[in-house]
Amino acid sequence: MTESLSSVLRDWVAANSLQAVSFKEISSPTRDLTEDYQVRYEAHFRPPRSDQAQIDIVLTENDFIGVGFDTRANVANRLNVRNMRQGYAAGFEPCEKREDELLRFLDLVRQGKIAILARCWPIVGLGKTRAAVNIRDVPSGFVFGPHGWLRPLADPKAATMSSRVLRYETWS
Predict the structure, then answer these.
(1) What DSSP character marks residue 102?
(2) Count of other CB atoms within 10 angstroms of residue 165
(3) What are phi and psi of 79, to 5 degrees?
(4) How does DSSP classify residue 129?
(5) β-strand 114-121 against 88-95: which pairing, if any?
(6) 0.70 cut: is pTM over it?
């Protein structure tokens, strides 16, 4: 599936004219001994601006796909709050997923449809972060990743006192 996923992603990048977004593939990544799975392929999407989502995709030896959506450091910087933890703002560990589901997710990212719900606390700074999408933007029957990682929102502009919605610009 490595060749297949690599080819599918390259074709998707070419079809969507993503000249401004850096697309980097690593076909033999360094093994992380702290993980309980072996990654055999990585794809990294890096747009030029911090208000555009960056995405990391991994493919394991079992053909499971994992996704990292932006970084906590970037989210904290954009919200002008402290960040006490490193890592992704949202995403999921590798699980069984199809390439077409991944491409539908990437289309939502490319169109700026995915947002981050961020809990922010005085003094502490950035707390829990989750990916969210306006339910009107989700294709019928679309499920990507483990249940609950991509939250549907009736109003993506709605925020509470401790929760803020961080929107992303398109990859154009």
Answers:
(1) H
(2) 16
(3) -90, -5
(4) E
(5) unpaired
(6) yes
**What does the pLDDT read at residue 159?**
59
User: Collapsing DSSP states into helix, strand and coil, what is residue 51?
Assistant: coil
**Residue position matching structure tokens 């483990």:** 146
- Residue 17 and residue 4: Cα distance in Å, rounded? 20
**Cα–Cα distance, 76 to 118 (Å, whole number):** 9
> What are the Cα distances from residue 31, in Å, to 22, 34, 38, 39, 40?
23, 9, 7, 7, 9
* Alpha-carbon span 65 to 63, nearest angstrom: 6
Contacts of 98 (CB under 8 A, 6+ apart): none
Q: What is d(CA 76, CA 89) in angstroms, rounded to the nearest whole number?
A: 9
pLDDT digits (tens, 9 = 90+) for 43-94: 999 999 999 999 999 999 999 999 999 999 999 999 999 999 999 999 999 9
